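Message: I would love a firmer grasp of how sequence relates to backbone shape in proteins. Thank you; the sequence and its tokens follow:
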Amino acid sequence: MASALSLPLSEVGNLTRVLSVPAGCKVVFQCLKGGRGQQACERLAAEGGSRYQVFNLEGGIAAWKAEGLPVVGVTAPRLTIFRQVQIAVGFLVLLSVLAGFFLTPAGFVVAGLFGAALAFAGISGWCGMAILLNRMPWNRSAA
């Protein structure tokens, strides 16, 4: 039985609870370029995933598409959430710095807070702005 599930890396250890995967089944992880897929393989193995045949799609979906292999459910291209966060935070930092120069020194503090929030997101893997952007209408599938 073939099936697919979009699962955040942090939930890989809960694979059997999220999706009933019988022992001995093949589990293939894929991400954009293969890095997070490899992390998912390692995480599942560390949490007792030896009862599955675990694979990583090397090079990720980008390599798959580059080889001309079929992809189901392809939608119109859009900016990834990662790029949307970069654009939004970059713009907010720019505005804050300009406010610091032309309005109030507090603008520099605000720019620093955005930088700290971005660093926290990178370290922890949790990004509130990404969660918020993911809920925006332009990021919802038409189905």
The chain has a mean pLDDT of 82. Strands lie at 26-29, 53-56. DSSP finds six helices and two strands in the chain. The CA atoms of residues 100 and 106 lie 6 Å apart.
